[in-house]
User: What shape does this take?
Amino acid sequence: MDCAKVGKLILQLRKEKGLTQKNVADALNISNKTISKWECGMGCPDASLWSELSSILGADIQKMLEGELNPNSPDHGNIRKVKFYVCPLCGNILVSTSPASIFCCGRKLTALIPKEVKEHSMDVQVMDIDYYISFDHEMRKSHYISFVAYVADDKVFLNKLYPEQTSAVRFPIMRGNGKLYAYCNHHGLWEQSILD
Assistant: This one.
């Protein structure tokens, strides 16, 4: 670990948050001289402080240990490159449209890769100005569809489903081609194209 790089990053993050050395020191129950030492590269935080320090400064621990925050590539608005992530512990659903480091419950998540699933079928019908999508799928706590997403043009519509709920959703009809994504807690993510 390069203490000079780490210290420079701590200083940068502290200033971005509008915090003084004393603010950070008080939050960590240490002296502000210790913060000054870190920022001057004359030492690094103790392992027991990293979690709270990353929370105070709003940065990922791993990136702080490396002493640099590398920004993601700019998102150029290509919604067709949408990626879905599901936390295996809490079930949170996260979405990105360009490469990103996604974390939940302290774990780095990997993007779900759509598969061809033959166990479940989607029935898409046009009703008024919506697509009505229903599934031949059980909805029990042990096996259910967690979410359905419709990606078209510059929008992502995401509908969270819960066990013991009906396995059907409605999305507004969008011009052009779109894709439906559904995530089963046993079989993963699958997709189907929709053509207008």
